[in-house]
Amino acid sequence: MKLTTALTTLMALGLATGAGAEIRLGASLSASGGAAFLGDPEAKTLEMLVEEVNAAGGINGEEIVLTLYDDGGDPNKARTFATRLVEDDEVVAIIGGTTTGTTMSVLSVAEDEGIPFISLAGAIQIIDPVRDYVFKTPHTDRMACEKIFTDMQTRGISKIGMIAGTDGFGASMEAQCKDVAGDHGIEILVAETYAPQDADMTPQLTKIKATEGVQAVLNPGFGQGPAIVTRNYAQIGLDLPLYQSHGVASDGFIELTGVEAAEGVRLPGTALLIADILEDGDAQKPVVMAYKTAYEAKYGEAVSTFGGYAHDAFRLMVDAIARAGSDDPDEIRDALEETRDLVGTTGIYSFSADDHLGLNLSAFRMLEIRDGAWTSID
């Protein structure tokens, strides 16, 4: 399925005025399917921001044409759309890859074709090892593990149980958490898994509950799985701190889980989730509030962390194109890598030749759900 902005539609019909220059951007997002709760706000965010930039005169006077495909979370479709974006739509840069699986498909095309690509997915393998044309905006799963384990350390927690999804993100974060646990004095006493389609994780949680010495539970995962885990957790009376990943950092997770079951869940998240309680001196507050206000006014729904990833990717790309003064993919790539101190909703980005994420742990906020809302516990 192909989605277009109103501007793109007009040009396709031959109704756009003049022969002015344009900058062609592409996107492949999971706006439908199982990852739609991630991809839908990402798609809406990109379309909104394209409208805003074009209304303000475009990039160096050139209008943006966004061609956006809905891959439905299917890596094969994502690869097909990425190829189409490059060969048929002639884009100079790509934003997207809602999930780790679709990202890996898109990045293979971007690398082969020499097209700068900013991913919206979390797995560390997207940018480690560094690839010439691939960047990303969300914190890595490894960073999420480190933020969670740091919080556990401060609370005297050293022995935990883990239950992880077997999807690409869940499996990657599980592996990363196991790899860094010892560095933080964390011992994983029991580790269980569940498949993306599973509807009941009670057996796995019962096993964790029966494991002597467990002080807290960590659930690497995204999608509906963590919500089911959280509900089952409450149902069996597992009275231990529950930590989730940044893969469920949205109001939608609370709604899907239920306010009562979600109470007390902790996870690393972004400033966007606590926009209304950020201090006035917080460097991210103006950016966060501007995005939140515009998005909610346009779409009548709450912003999400995931839309924020798209917001930051777009800001990074527009900034790079403006500084490059060109729509040449190699020059855009070079300008991206030279980005310094760009303030986004997820953090403050500074890329380098060795770092195509540009964030550190300070960009994460440790959050807890209390009375159906997010609060900071840093």
Automatic annotation (TrEMBL):
InterPro entries: BCAA_transport, Leu-bd, Leu_Ile_Val-bd, Peripla_BP_I. One of its GO terms (biological process) is amino acid transport. Coiled coil: none annotated. Transmembrane segments: none annotated. Residues 22-358 form the Leucine-binding protein domain. Gene3D superfamilies: 3.40.50.2300. It comes from the Bacteria. Keywords: Amino-acid transport, Signal, Transport. SUPFAM superfamilies: Periplasmic binding protein-like I. Residues 1-21 form the signal peptide. Belongs to the leucine-binding protein family. This is Amino acid/amide ABC transporter substrate-binding protein (HAAT family).
